Amino acid sequence: MEQQSLFGDGTLDMLTTTGEGDVAPAPATDDAARAQAAERAAELRHLLDYHAYRYYALDAPEITDAAFDKLLIELQHIEAAYPDLVTPDSYTQRVGGFVSEQFAPVTHMARMYSMDDAMNLEELDEWLQRTEDALGAGNATYTCELKIDGLGVALTYQNGAFVRAATRGDGTTGEDVSLNVRTIRDVPMHLAESALAHMGADRNTPIEVRGEVYMPKGSFVRLNEEADAEGRDPFANPRNAAAGSLRQKDPKVTARRDLATFLYAVADTTPLHVHSQHDFLAWLRDAGFSVNPNVARCGTPAEVHAFCADALAHRGDLDYDIDGVVVKVDSFDQQDELGFTARAPRWAIAFKFPPEEKTTVLREIRIQVGRTGVLTPVAEFDPVTVAGSTIARATLHNEDEVHRKDVREGDTIIVHKAGDVIPEVVGPVLDKRPEGAVEWHMPATCPACGAPVAHEDGEVAYRCVSIDCPAQLKERLLHWVSRGCMDVDGVGEELVDKMIEAGLLHDVADFYSLTVDQVAALDTGRTYLKDDKRRGVKAGDPIPVGMTIATKVVDELTKSKAQPLGRVLFALGIRHVGKSVGELIAQRFLTVDALVTANEEDIAAIDGIGPKIAESVKQFLSVPENLAVLDRLRAAGLSLEEDLSGAAERAAGATGVSADLAEAQPLAGLTFVLTGTLVNRTRDEAGAALKALGAKVTGSVSKKTSYVVAGPKAGSKLTKAESLGVPVLDEEALEHILATGRVE
Q: Alpha carbon of 128 to those of 139, 140, 296, 345: distances in Å?
């Protein structure tokens, strides 16, 4: 079936149909055809811009969505036949055809100020009274606008054409998100001629308009439904979804997210020849921008109150999230008279709505075991929609918080979102408490592994200290192979995930039973893009890790067996035991067996350790599962001993200090603390060099500290050293000590 010309004059039959109504470009014929195509493309671009303006800015469309899409398809096919006719401002380019490597910094034409908040009507009234006092009672008129819960953006236009879009950033400098903003269909690429004409002689002056990018509620629901179907984590709320969508590296992703805008501000009003916020909003509409229709000019504080009350009552009826009302002095002259504070305009305030509260039924208080073993009670309740999204769980933080709020399983509870973002249980509705509801207590054993739960005096947290707890597995494994611990190069999060999925890792000792074949066979999660007969693979087949990487991984694991005991103690993830503490303990006990048989007092007696660390170490070593892992590590070839033979030579080679000095240990008996930024070495490197000369290096300042080495940006440690009278050295003095072994 032949396709009639879509160009309107019936003379150019350059399009043919393919299949189910698809339109494909026919081969170009001659210069005349190209000229006609160029003329029609320009006409289509004008029509699309006009109808987008009618739809988004005026909310008064003249054609149906299907008719609009037909115009867009026609332009797409012309540009497909004649790629040289594609222009940057063409509506077809708003689907995200380029990938940004980075977001370049953009300096705003004028600072984008924050806004002071009024958290209740009393604070709003105080601001209104200050304003009336400053301008004279009855002299101020206010413009009230809904406070859109989105992401601030600044759009720059030159000669009426879109130039650039930037995020708010720190108010002075934002990120260039122009490619992504081009995909937002209610952002005009050209300003309407009537608005430019209003600017008169200033029509060519660059202008920077500001507003919010937001995601409609319906689009947010669809986005999370897609995420759920694809096994991805959902967005917490529409604002987060909008922010994440606007900062995508690939604008095609942004284009699929259905973002929208409301504009309401400008960097400089001078070239627009408008004299009030109310008139400026009218100019924005005329120019082609999307402006929120829920705006009112109020002559009295009472009218401002009425607008705020109405907005609060109807916030749930809107297809976008709002979190308050912005009240502005309408006159620009009066705004100039009031001026700014250091952070915000005096002529505007944001009246923030109280968090939306709902009631629901608390079905269970479930324990969640975090990556560090902390047990956190989590309230699980009947799903309820609050502030634009459905929630069904909220953290209760700790046992003390559960008792403070006195929530019990079966209670009817009040929930809201703290800051309209974080789900929170406010408390129970006591008159609806069911009979027999019992007070909740933290379990004595870990629900993930059954190991005893530890609770230190003076702390609210309860912890599982079992090294083979499955809830902590991934983070413990990553910690073990990290650079500061066993330093296993090539084993990162992605590979550890695959090893866990394959059932190869259950604790850190399992690393040392891995074979090259096991690692090589792991699925990388990627697939071959095309057939490769030489390899015997087809497009879509999973790509394995392979023998080269697998061999390197197993070699690195084998090499890590030689790490000294101090590194192993740090890698085990014992609470409060960092790299320096691990080394101090290893230097004192020399073997893990000696450490296991030591008592808390022996450990606490080490300079720089103390009772809290000693208690944590003994708790860890009292768990049978942890001792079993240590036995398996020893069986795998780890010595679990501090090898002191040739220590001076190894230390000298690793740190660059003199081998003779290292042998003499001239700094034995001295304790150093490093703070601030060092230029010649990192703090780790400087600490290692000091230790090679016999010094102790600790992380906290006390009366026992011999010297504090302070670089630029030194903080509380320097302050404490000065208060205790501990000598403070600069980096030049440190380098002298490392070269000579003497403190002068």
A: 12, 10, 16, 14
Token pair, residue 689, equals 């060099």
Do residues 194 and 315 share a domain? yes
Q: pLDDT tens digits for 698-744?
A: 878 888 899 999 988 788 888 889 889 999 999 888 988 988 888 87
Residues 426 and 308 in one domain: no
Report d(CA 610, CA 147) in Å as an integer: 53
| 147 a catalytic residue | yes
Domain that holds residue 600: 470-636
Q: What does the pLDDT read at residue 14?
A: 30
- Single out the catalytic residue among 147, 328, 417, 717: 147
Query: pTM score > 0.85 for this model?
Result: no
Three-state secondary structure call for residue 565:
helix
**Domain-ending residue, one of 330, 352, 374:** 352
Report the amino acid identity of residue 653.
Answer: G
Contact 217, 319 (CB under 8 A): yes
- Can you give the pLDDT at residue 317? 86
Per-residue pLDDT at 202 exceeds 50: yes
Q: CA-CA distance, 394 to 421, in Å (whole number)?
A: 11
Q: Does residue 361 register a pLDDT over 90?
A: yes
Rounded CA-CA distance 220/319 in Å is: 10
The phi, psi pair for 328, rounded to 5°, reads -125, 145
Same domain assignment for residues 215 and 234: yes
> Looking at the 3D structure of the chain, how many domains does it have?
5
Q: Report if residue 9 sits inside a domain.
A: no
398 and 530 co-located in one domain: no
